[in-house]
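Q: What structure does this chain adopt?
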Amino acid sequence: SDVCSSDLAQHTYARNRARSLTVKTESIDYDERRDNPSMDPRPRILFTPAPGVHWLFFRHRLVCLHRERPKPKDSSGQAVNVRECFNITIFSRDRKLAQLLIEEARDVAIPKSEVRLMVHRAGQGYWMEQMKRLPRPVESVILANGLMEDLIEDAKNFLSKREWYVQRGIPYRRGYLLHGPPGTGKSSAVVALASALQMDIAVLSLGDSSLDDNSISELFSSIPVNAVVLMEDIDCAFLERKEGEDKRSKVTFSGLLNAIDGVAAGEGRLLFTTTNHIERLDPALIRPGRIDRKLFIGHANREQAERLFLRFFPDASEAQSRAFSERIPPCRVTMSALQTHLLMYSEDIEGAIAQLDEMIASLEYSVPTTEGQENSCKSPEQVPVP
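A:
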């Protein structure tokens, strides 16, 4: 419906001849206001053909288009499904015109130069398209020891082996746990991986009060096509396996386990979970078969710092990049803190180097001492499961 509505809004009929119209507004972004300071900063008013029947021409053929918008489901209490239905009748014997019309609508709505990731979010027991975001280049997420490249290669290998799994009767699913201190790039790594694989992201929050065991089972069995599932901060949902406590989510621990790898669990699924505290997770949740790889993403080392510095200052000398990276203490600085610092001095390479010590001194992060994190500067933990 998004494709058809975008094309209809730009059709000559919508601009000149339509008599039944819907009014919407479009905010003026900063780039437009910067390029034209004298323009009216108020939201621009746009007209599109309203729901109902419209007659127009496409390639000299008469077209009848019936635009139908769903009504609110007052009785169910569920949110309105914003998707619309377009019924198109073309007065022609050439069936190719229908395909040409839809293809043209798609090209208007989604230009090839503007391909974006779709982010789906779970709500009311089904997946909703929440937003589109720009893909994230893999090289923009700098993890230690080639971990990003290893993660992408592992996912590609899994996706290419459907028949291998089927022939051996192995459930065609793969789960990953990314753990480590906050700000080290766990969620960013998932976005970069989805971008590299040209897949969308389906975000599932276990804290959603509308979820229960039935709805989460439905969600896992109906994951959007070509999407990876992301559950962030999974430790916050189940600190301990306790029953009868008052909590927002109605999802039980056993309900989550069954949804992940029960009889009705979906096939062909990449599941990513993240946590800052792996020691808080119940072993049943991260056992082999539910989580196939555990990847530790720790504080920045000097090699990561140097690579990040060169992304901001590609023309920097070797001496400058080394002067920056050698100031990084072990087990202290996250990649997000370094990125924030470099953003502040993005036009001042000498200032980025000179002020680094002051930034590090201001950090409130302490050396991790929790179980599984005491070696945060060593090679990331990688636990492959056959």
